[in-house]
Structures are given as structure tokens and as C-alpha cells.
Amino acid sequence: DTAVSQTPKYLVTQMGNDKSIKCEQNLGHDTMYWYKQDSKKFLKIMFSYNNKELIINETVPNRFSPKSPDKAHLNLHINSLELGDSAVYFCASSQLGQGLEQYFGPGTRLTVT
Amino acid sequence: DQQVKQNSPSLSVQEGRISILNCDYTNSMFDYFLWYKKYPAEGPTFLISISSIKDKNEDGRFTVFLNKSAKHLSLHIVPSQPGDSAVYFCAARGGNKLVFGAGTILRVKS
């Protein structure tokens, strides 16, 4: 059983399109995250939700909108995609009280052409 | 503004020897430091952590050392095994978020 799953694994799309990436965790965690790994390989936090409430919102263009329908799901919707959005996006989850041991999904490689 | 830096992009070690991965940080307010390991096409997995009030934490073959005065931490793997070949990310917790370094690729040769 996959603990944190993301779909799709690969996403190739054209500039200007709108796309979504879905994330689900079956660990019973109350906190979920979205990270972006850019071309320089840094993993940077984008958003964090705790029990469906936004608790971290880094400096991210408002074209990126996270949505958490319940505490097991955190989806990422991106409007008007740009070339610079090409990256690997990782979803993760943890228990908030810990926040150290985060469980990551396998990543979604987004390529914008 | 890179608060967590891993200055060695890659490291190659012979099986059975010690692997030492290094990490430097700039923010003295970080309260925990962590190492994550990542295999290709997978997400990072938690390896080991250390509180800022400790200077050493050991878990089997993995030991993390923290030198607060130098704002430096290191991960020692002894003995290194081919299965340890992966990307190792150093991370630090500040507030309620983790700040990651760019990773070091470790290759363990058999």
C-alpha cells in the first residue's frame, strides 16, 4: 500500500494551460505539504495544510492554488502555466506535532513547453 | 538566500568505508536538523534527525554530528553499502517548516 500517492507521475503541457496534480495519503496524518524541486535541485516548501486549513503559504504566484477537500487529500491546481513552472512537485504528509518525519510522494514531473 | 547548503554535489566511496556528508546552515534559530535520502523516481525518505541541543545522534550505521558554533552538521555512514547510493538531503526546521539543501549524490562502489 502506497502511503503518499500523487497523480499523474508525469505531466507535459503547453504554456497557458491549467492543470492539477492530486495527492492522497493513507497514513492518518493531519498535515500535508507541497514542495517544488527546481532545476537547482532545492526542495522548497510551497504550501502546508493542517486539517484542511492553510498554515504555510510561501511566496508562490497566485496562479498556484492548493485545495484540501479532506485531511487525506491535498491537490494543487496551476493556472496559466509558464515555462518556469517546469519542475518536480512533491507532496508530503506528517503529524503536525512532529513535522520532522515527513512522508513524501514519488513526485510529479511537470514539463511546460 | 540559501539557508542550508550542501557544498559537495557528489561523493564516491568504496564499500565498507566511511561516508561523510556535510551540511552548513546560516540561521541560528533552526531547532532541528535532519537528513533525508532519495532514490531516483522516488520521494525523499526520512533518515535521521538531531535536536539543536544535542551534538550527536546515532541510529545503526548512521550518525549525525552537529557543531552549532560552526553552524555545521555531518552525516556519517559506517560501513557504507552499495544500497546507500542515493541523494542525501540535509534539512533544518525553522518555525513550522523544513528548509532543504540541494542534496549530495553518494555513490558507494562495490
Structure, explained:
- The complex is a heterodimer of chains A (113) and B (110).
- With 113 residues, chain A is an all-beta fold.
- Chain A contains no helices and 11 strands.
- In chain A, strand 7 and strand 8 form a beta hairpin.
- With 110 residues, chain B is an all-beta fold.
- In chain B, 0% of the residues lie in helices and 57% in strands.
- At the A-B interface, strand 5 and strand 10 of A face strand 5, strand 9 and strand 10 of B.
Brief overview:
The complex is a heterodimer of chains A (113) and B (110). Chain A is mainly beta and 113 residues long.
Q: How many strand units of chain A?
A: 11
Uncertain regions spanning at least 5 consecutive residues of chain A: none
Percentage of β-strand residues of chain A? over 45%
Helix and strand content put the structural class of chain B at mainly beta
SS content category of chain A: mainly beta
State mean pLDDT of chain A (0 to 100 scale).
Answer: 92
C-alpha termini separation of chain B: 38 Å
The count of strands of chain B amounts to: 11
How do the SSEs of chain A run, as a string of H and E?
Answer: EEEEEEEEEEE
Number of helices of chain B: 0
Gap between N and C termini of chain A, in Å?
34 Å
What does the secondary structure layout of this molecule look like, with pairings?
The complex is a heterodimer of chains A (113) and B (110).
Chain A: E1 4-7, E2 10-13, E3 19-25, E4 31-37, E5 43-50, E6 53-57, E7 64-70, E8 73-78, E9 87-94, E10 103-104, E11 108-112
Parallel strand pairs in A: 2-11
Antiparallel strand pairs in A: 1-3, 3-8, 4-5, 4-9, 5-6, 7-8, 9-10, 9-11
Chain B: E1 4-5, E2 10-14, E3 19-25, E4 32-38, E5 45-51, E6 56-59, E7 62-67, E8 72-77, E9 86-94, E10 97-100, E11 104-109
Parallel strand pairs in B: 2-11
Antiparallel strand pairs in B: 1-3, 3-8, 4-5, 4-9, 6-7, 7-8, 9-10, 9-11
Keyword list:
heterodimer; A: 113 residues; 7-stranded mixed β-sheet; 4-stranded antiparallel β-sheet; 56% strand; B: 110 residues; mainly beta; 5-stranded antiparallel β-sheet; 0% helix; globular
